[in-house]
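Hi everyone,

Forwarding the result from last night's run.
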Amino acid sequence: MKIRDIRLTPLFSKFKTTYVWAMGKNLGQTTILVEIETDAGVVGYGETAPTMTSPQAIHTLLLTAKTVLLGQPITQITDLMKQLFTQNFGHHYASQSHPRIGNIAFAGVELALWDALGKSVGLPVHALLGGKIHDTVSFMGFVQGDSTEEVAAHASQLVQDGFEVIYLKAGHANDKDMANVEAVRKAIGNKRLRIDPNEAWDLMEAQVMLQKLAKYDLEMVEQPVSAISGVPALKALKQSCSVPIAADQSVFTPEEAHAMCASGAASLLTVGLHETGGILGFRRVAAIAQLFDINVCLHGVWETGITTCASIQAVAGVPNLDDGNQIMWQLLEEDIVENPDLTPNGGKIAVMSGPGLGFSLNEDAVGRAAEAYSKKNGMAVT
């Protein structure tokens, strides 16, 4: 089982409604579909989610996978990823010199390798990782909307849809944040409420805002201050407020996870496959957090159902898994995963039992998203 071909297809997918967050408003997202074909004709799929990084720069890095991986055995995933990082950065994993861009770029390659390997042996990826201990994975209801009336109405609908954890973006003007949180709390009753300012606040502003917002019974606040400020700012914030803190953009690597957990600065790690470089990196971070009795919450970025399926495979055997995990494919006007149906039932999605990552693609949807990207950016498929 050797790698015969690698194909990269940049995609642009529109959102159903405008995505509103602390960094502005977005109409859609860019991802790069990664296909790895074996000499037996098996094709594994993954995706890279550039998010805040230039898709063109990420695409250039991904092209090196062809020179490094072609002709190599599909079974040697750890070594193949080591070779890929060494070729590009002179180091065998995402060290402090390139933790963000390296992991973000090559996560899609690792996911495609796992998908191809699982399909080749007829097993779901979670079985290759030691099996599952969860039959379902629980997700949050992600509130969308621009006005306070819109977010309150959507939050109410999410409760009706069966979500126990409601997740609200913050980091707007302070008075708008206060109004939104108050309105959502009224709309959801005693359901669990989490907010994410996306690093929008400085330390003092975060302390003031969380003191004011605490009366709305927040379950946690995710990365309220800049990730650049690191452990000290989160630790100072945790010591001065009653609301539990989740570290998000502060943690990409196992070293960062250890430093964060050992500091006592965070009660939860919100981290995903794209930050950690794939399934293996995520599992390393989760294992470190478990040593400190800290749970991990799947982080959502602009992604398709491919990442949802891969994430479920990754966490199926993780004991310290949170029950308000993040999900993002539902924001899309059209997803590229054809089956299984990834719509949460009572906030839960069943762990897939099919081979590989457990999904099949809608090829027509892929074609439409590729055409949309080409029209928007003019990048050719390679």
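The two ends are 23 Å apart (CA to CA).

Cheers,
N.
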